[in-house]
Amino acid sequence: EVYHPDMMTIAVNNTRMLTNLNQAMTNNEFLVYFQPIVKLEDSSVIGAEALIRWNSKVYGMVAPYIFIPLAEESGLILSIGRWVLHESCRQLSEKMKAGWPADFELHINVSVRQLMQPDFYGYITTVLDEFNLSPKNLTLEITESLIMESNPVIKDQLTRIRAFGISIAIDDFGSGFSSLSYLHNLNFDCLKIDRDFVSSVLNSAKSEAIISAVIRLADGLSVPLIAEGIETQEMAQKLFKLG
């Protein structure tokens, strides 16, 4: 079946939402939430992931899985990504002045489109200088699928960023192409295991086995492992026992 009437409805809705998304930054409708990164050994907060939210005047709170793909397709992700980086660093700077530790780690997601921009590295360094932050305060998260990109521009960009002292984390590990054969092509500093495995760790032997395997992999690569989506004490205790 080539065409279905629902396709027109979806296309019209996407066009309307994209029109509003274009105006969202001008209307100050974007928000950044800090999701804590907790060290399970002592429950201390060692960092946070910056998560963008869109509080639209038309749609209300819009989930990222709805508007981020639109931003990617339209190219708006470039301006939105810069806003997230700038606003997150501004907020971190204010929090550090108020007493947050100097070694606090801020994780920010970046897209392929951003990494393809020649001035992306320069923008990062400018923002860090503006808010008097160290490169050690910043970790850029890239999706596992980005590892599959053979584009030399992206590889050069990541190498330059990492040489500056900014960490690189592989996000949602295990959810894409199980890119074990690609890990040796990219230097990185952290693995983040996909929340789908974490959410079922208490009642799925398969999820537990996969997590245990990734733990061994991270240990062998000498990089820290972050589990996404820990939402109960029981899940935290289970993952801590697994290592």
Characterise the protein shown here.
This protein is of the alpha/beta class. 48% of the residues lie in helices and 21% in strands. It has 10 helices and 8 strands. Strands 1, 2, 3, 4, 5, 6, 7 and 8 form an 8-stranded mixed β-sheet that branches. Helix 1 (5-24) packs across helix 2 and helix 3 runs parallel beside helix 5 (120-130). The longest helix has 21 residues, at 77-97. It is globular and about 50 Å long.
Strand-helix topology:
Elements: H1 5-24, E1 30-39, E2 44-56, E3 60-62, H2 64-74, H3 77-97, E4 105-109, H4 112-115, H5 120-130, E5 138-143, H6 144-147, H7 152-164, E6 167-173, E7 190-193, H8 195-199, H9 205-221, E8 225-227, H10 233-242
Parallel strand pairs: 2-4, 4-5, 5-6, 6-7, 7-8
Antiparallel strand pairs: 1-2, 2-3
Helix pairs in contact: 1-2, 3-5
pLDDT below 50 for ≥5 consecutive residues: which ranges? none
Structural class: alpha/beta
- What is the number of strand segments? 8
Helix content: 40-55%
Shape: globular
Major sheet: 8 strands, mixed
Beta content: 15-25%
> What is the average of the pLDDT values?
89
- Termini separation comes to 49 Å
Radius of gyration: 19 Å
Secondary-structure element order, N to C: HEEEHHEHHEHHEEHHEH
Total helical segments: 10
